[in-house]
Amino acid sequence: MPTSPKRTKKRRRLRFPVIIPGICILAGIIILLVVLLKGCNSKKTDTPESGSPAAQENPSAVTIEDSGKDFRNFFGHKGLVTETCNLYLKTDEGFLPTGSFEGGANLEIGTEQEMDLVSVAGTPFYIHGDSLSPSDRWYRSETHLIPYSEDLTTAESYDIYDERGNRIASVQHSDTYPIYVKPNADDNRYGILFMNAIYYIHADQVVSTAPADRTVATQLAAEVPVLMYHFFYSEAEGGSRVDGNYVETGELEEQLAYIKDNGFTACTMRELQYWMEQRAQLPYHTIAITIDDADPSVHQYAMPIFVKYGINATNFVICGWQPAEMPYELWEMRENGMELQSHGFLTHTGGCSGMGHGGLLLCMDHAAGVEDTIRSFDYVDGGFVYCYPFGDINENAESIVRDGGAKLAFTTEGGRIHPGMDPLALPRVRVTGGNGLNAFAASIG
Ligand SMILES: [Zn+2]
């Protein structure tokens, strides 16, 4: 009679001539049998229904279809959610529908597919792959902010908003998030890390905050040099330095390599705004990089180098000098981490002789100036940072950009910025072409 190896083993064990009371052996066998039977039982209920027993144990879990579709081409990319769809949470009991994502929202797709669900990057959530279409956006989702040692806990249901105030998701359970941005008197939102970037929860959907067991290892920034560039050229292509506003591509590359190799962080304008408002933390050695005028040489010569080093920068665009429709070059720079902000719509011109450099904004009619500012912010699709043409600033200019919606505004005065300064009269650190790496290092170190 054929016997299984297991059985043979058991018999052999029983034959061992060791003096152990038979009753102990018997008890051991009974326990073993009970354990084995239990294991078999649970397997029996699991196997035939594959995945669905969870639905029986927890009525909230649903059976997810597995059509065999392959959504891996979305992995690690942005996807556009075609219509409002379910948000699923993976639990031990299965996938629970636990809220919704809004149609039209861009989502960071993770790197997991389970049945027809794909993971949402940087979250515990999944959505149905059929709800996704390829997105034409490819900007990096990231944050340079350091979270506070404090967590928030949401209400039993809460909404998540993007920076523009569009609701992108509703969640039907309570969650806890590290706090990246705190509310203030003008803005009742908390900033959390969601899909690898900062998203927002309104304070009235936060039930509590509590200290978190998270020590901030990094030293924090107390001041930030905001670099000011203008034009770029390539000696290899026959260009030459017209004046100190021109930086050669090799020199720029050396500077960006220095930034990267020495642990500097180039933050975004939104991060800088929150830090200036003392509602967010930036790491020590944070800098910001600005480029005035959006000259074609920025796209041609500087962008490839910024992309190569993965470093953020901000273009101050003279919007009225651009085609009526934002040209592809600006779109491409924005997606590549070189954000677009305002250098006025049609204010980059003279008109106020006898004041400063004679820039128009110094004596422009208030209403016309506000209209010009709003128009420029709309042109760059959500601008909130202004760069005064020629660096000309007085009370008239400042009240115009304030009423136009600027949260930060930069001059051409020299110096670093820190919280407590007038956010609409911020100095910068000029980068002068041909000055050498030592001077550059000293200006940011
Ligand atoms: Zn300019």
Furnish the topology, listing elements before pairings.
Elements: H1 5-15, H2 22-49, H3 53-57, E1 78-81, E2 85-91, E3 94-101, E4 106-114, E5 117-120, E6 125-128, E7 132-134, E8 150-154, E9 158-161, E10 167-171, E11 176-178, E12 189-194, E13 197-202, E14 206-211, E15 226-229, E16 231-233, E17 246-248, H4 249-261, E18 265-266, H5 269-276, E19 286-292, H6 296-309, E20 313-317, H7 328-335, E21 338-342, H8 366-379, E22 385-387, H9 395-403, E23 408-414, E24 426-430, H10 437-444
Parallel strand pairs: 15-19, 15-24, 16-17, 18-19, 19-20, 20-21, 22-23, 23-24
Antiparallel strand pairs: 1-4, 1-7, 2-3, 2-6, 3-10, 4-5, 5-6, 8-11, 8-14, 9-10, 12-13
Strand order of the largest sheet: 7-1-4-5-6-2-3-10-9
Largest sheet: 9 strands, antiparallel
Shape descriptor reads globular
Structural class: alpha/beta
Count of strand segments: 24
CATH superfamily of the largest domain: Glycoside hydrolase/deacetylase
pLDDT below 50 for ≥5 consecutive residues: which ranges? 1-22, 30-57
* Beta content: 25-35%
As for the number of domains, it is 3
CATH class of the largest domain: Alpha Beta
The assigned CATH architecture of the largest domain is Alpha-Beta Barrel
**Heteromolecules bound:** zinc ion
As a percent range, the share of helical residues equals 25-40%
The CATH topology of the largest domain? TIM Barrel
Mean pLDDT: 89
